[in-house]
């Protein structure tokens, strides 16, 4: 190996570096208390003050400082006792399933080997040089050379952090420097390592807590710093003879998140400040990167926009104008204000823009409509549009990197939950789609894909994607796993997973409910399911499950509901309102206490997410509305389905304390109902919590995911 940090620290006078301490977050209990915040806030009955977690008497006097400290100590003790109790419960229960676990794990490993074929890791081509990453190492090879002759430029293990993975790589235009971000699965923050390339690569600089970064020129790097899940500062650092680092931009509004992007032609670097509904972009001229950034268009409430560049014109992807869906517009660089934006192409109604890629003379849009995938190729010369419907089994795009704008082919991969990635290419010269048969791909041929529409409470048609084994008979007797998300305008995750394929092979039916609040039918679909419309997502989910049963896809006693993160809101709400529709519920890092979380403005995401859930502190109607569907608030003694929850100790987005409280309250309600009915042999649901020491908010390695 060409270098090591310790070696160059000794010989080049650099301070000794320990990346582990900079990247890996210390294990801690995510307690949501605050000694000083929210002291004079009026709270509704049933809510929990920041320094109290498990019980609270309304109308009591504010505690003194000493009493607060005692309360915090009591909270920590209660938290530790609850966690200890749940871990013991998990150890006792999981032991019973060891034979089943062993069988499933073996089958998943077999499927992983069978389906993980090598399409090759992403390649970055610079002239004759090709850079690529494999197994925590960055390699350099010549374009015509065998990759067996590649040189190692960088290794995570060699810099003292073997359990980190490489998240992003950026090579400077003259290839003298390489910036690499390293991320631990136990932390949301990454560390950026800048390496000076050459015969003996040298670590030049280490920057902790970095989110995004781009080279403006050969020796000027821009980056954003991340703290408590927020990115609000942009810095510039130079690697010239006079090295300097300075603050370039600061975002003052807590609702906005800042990242950096470099246009495809490397003409501009864009500083993008986005909230859930509004954008503002500043341009850094890569020909003069020390010059102050220039504003494209001041933020306008409700207008999102993103910037690309071609031939002295800005191409603007924006929601400006009616309808409030994405459109491609353009304007001169010299007069970039909104009044000069001219329409190039507008999306059809109920169409979701998944991704966009700019080439020298073409713009490629990846679109989704009613869960079907399309490719629209727009000629930037003739403005003609070529629309291609992709295979019906495909549910997910993955665009490959195209560093050279002048390339004549666009490469991408298609997958579904039960179909491994398959590579495709669109040729601009031939105007056709080509399937890339790199090697034999084990596509599941005995899996049938069905598209359905369920009529919701207000007559809105909600798409459902269903997979089942074509050889299955008597589908009403088969087990059904229903998936839901419905938040932030984000689509349900429908990329390939070995466990989904295993379930199909074992006779299960898989259903994906594309309810409002998600983004499957465009921005209006999200808007129609957030804030004061959140209950529409719940009505959609109920309608989807009811239709599946009506059409003979399983029945309530064989139905399980699965959700992750914010999807836990709708899943948990259905569990309270219509528990008779399902027999089991599986949640991963679930957001189940909306009201109490949105009352705590000191938490890192609360203010930013008011555009999704509303602000209960400022609006009493909003408070009552959230309370009407919040899973934690609506637990009551009744017959519940069995529940399995996976949570993470290091989760910064959904702190473990809230999940513990939810499990504790749900189990008590289920036991209270069983004891109150007094019937012999009354079924008591099994409520299980598995707390993972590794991983951070649904971000697990293959090994940890396999164990889960």
Structure, described:
It is a single chain. A hairpin with a 4-residue loop joins strand 26 (419-427) and strand 27 (432-436). Helix content is 21%, strand content 33%. By secondary structure, it is α+β, with helices and mostly antiparallel strands. Among the domains are: 122-249, Methylamine Dehydrogenase, Chain H (7 Propeller); 445-703, 3-Layer(aba) Sandwich (Rossmann fold). It starts with a helix and ends with a helix. The chain is globular, with a radius of gyration of 26 Å. It is built from 13 helices and 35 strands. The longest helix is centred in the first third of the chain and has 32 residues, at 65-96. The strands form seven sheets. Strands 28-29-31-30-32-33-34-35 form an eight-stranded mixed sheet, sandwiched between helices. Mean pLDDT is 84; it is low at 1-63.
